[in-house]
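re: that chain from earlier
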Amino acid sequence: MMPKPFSLAGLLRLRRTEQDIAGAELARANARIRDNATTERRARRALAEYGDTATSTETLRAIAAARQASATMLAELQIVLDDDLSAHERARADYLTARMRFTGLEKTERRHREAAIAEDLKHEQQALDELTGSRAAREKGDE
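^ sequence. v structure.
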């Protein structure tokens, strides 16, 4: 006897795909955060390397301009990092939602499969019982 197929198999595949997509988006968000944090650390190190000793007014102006440019870049990087953190939180929430939806349906599919196996075993046992009963009846009739 062929077990009844899981009627929500298509939806289960869709939920798995949604979870995979959400997981990939979360991974991309994590990578953006790591990359931007690395860029920020490098910019801060570069800013710290500017010397404090100016030998002329032009050198002092150049140092001030470089520091201002670096400070502006750091402020812009912080904005990008804040945006990336927000995107990461959204991606994380989307992944957790997709994971919950998939896991719930996966459990339903597992229960369906277990019920189908139990039903198959029940039918097999009934068939064995019938065979045993028929054999016993034949042996009793032969006596």
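Helices lie at 9-48, 57-142.
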